[in-house]
Amino acid sequence: MALPPRILPRIGVLAGLCLLVAHLHAAPLTFDQALQAALSTHPLVQSKRSSQVAARAEREGAEWQRYPTPSIEANTQSGGQNGGKNASLLRVDQPLWTGGRITAGIEAADSRYDAAGAAIGEAARQVHAHGSDSLLHDHRISL
User: Fold this and answer.
1) Are strands 69-77 and 85-93 parallel, antiparallel or unpaired?
2) Residue 44 falls within a domain, yes or no?
């Protein structure tokens, strides 16, 4: 069932009026609420949080280098009268002494995690400063 062409603009105007009424009844945000919304959704802060998650995963990966690493190999040789031979090998590699390489890797990952946390704080301060500047600019214009 198709709507007559003259009804479509009326539906659009009605929808716009409904949105306007809903907007008028919405409570305005305080500066703190607007700032919290900006800090939780700003792309700069989100990217720094993602970097911190990646640094945490890197730290966990560096920690796993202390543990043994199992590996399995399976070889098949063809030919001969017996129809071929199968050979399997199970190996476990354990670092006994690495000269501090593993510990240094863990400490470097810890430093990157701490730096990522500081970067989140710096990004939050930038967003806060930008929001404060915008508020002051808007306040000056309204005076």
Assistant:
1) antiparallel
2) yes
Please tell me the predicted confidence (pLDDT) of residue 40: 83
Range of the domain at 108: 29-66+99-142
For residue range 86-95, list pLDDT tens digits in order. Answer: 888 899 998 8
- E-assigned strand segments in 48-132: 69-77, 85-93
Q: Is residue 122 part of a domain?
A: yes
Structure tokens at 17: 């009026």
pTM summary value: 0.61
The total of structural domains in the chain comes to 1
CA 104 to each of CA 21, 54, 96, 135: distance values in angstroms, whole numbers, following the listed order: 62, 18, 15, 46
Asked, for residue 73, whether it belongs to a domain, the answer is: no
In a domain, 76, yes or no: no
Nearest to 120 by CA among 52, 61, 56, 58: 52
Q: How far apart are the first and last CA of the chain?
A: 55
The DSSP output letter for 65 is: G
Axis-axis angle for helices 101-142, 43-63 (nearest 10): 170
Indicate whether 2 pLDDT > 60.
yes
Q: Are 48 and 119 in contact (CB under 8 A)?
A: yes
